[in-house]
Design a protein that fits this description.
InterPro entries: PAP_assoc (IPR002058). It comes from Echinococcus granulosus (Hydatid tapeworm). This is Poly(A) RNA polymerase gld 2 protein. GO terms for molecular function: metal ion binding. It is a single chain. By secondary structure, the chain is of the alpha/beta class. The chain has a domain of 58 residues. 31% of the residues lie in helices and 15% in strands. It contains 4 helices and 4 strands; from the N terminus they run H-H-E-E-H-E-H-E. Strands 2-1-3-4 form a 4-stranded mixed beta sheet. Strand 3, helix 4 and strand 4 form a beta-alpha-beta unit. The radius of gyration is 17 Å and the shape is flat. The mean pLDDT is 79.
Length: 88
């Protein structure tokens, strides 16, 4: 398959270095309110933990950190070896 992508349209205006992006990521999650917010990769914004907990089975409501993403919703298996996290 010979696919020509519109590279000019896909180019990001972001000029930050990888180090700057990583430092920003760490700063954001260092101050993240995990008690009240869940990370939603799929929605691109935090969700209220109360709303998330309502959709969980009873045995999953004790987890301390919630990360939601489309890959994990589809049974991708990324959560293996992460007993303190819950992917829904």
């Amino acid at each position: 398959m010979d696919l020509e992508l519109p590279w000019d349209e896909l180019r990001s205006a972001n000029r930050s270095t990888l180090g700057e992006l990583f430092a920003g990521f760490m700063a954001y999650y260092a101050d993240f309110d995990f008690a009240r917010r869940a990370i939603s990769i799929r929605n691109g914004r935090p969700l209220a933990v109360d709303a998330v907990i309502q959709r969980l089975p009873s045995d999953k409501k004790a987890f301390k950190i919630f990360v939601e993403g489309e890959y994990w919703c589809c049974g991708g298996g990324c959560d293996r070896g992460l007993p303190e996290l819950h992917f829904w």
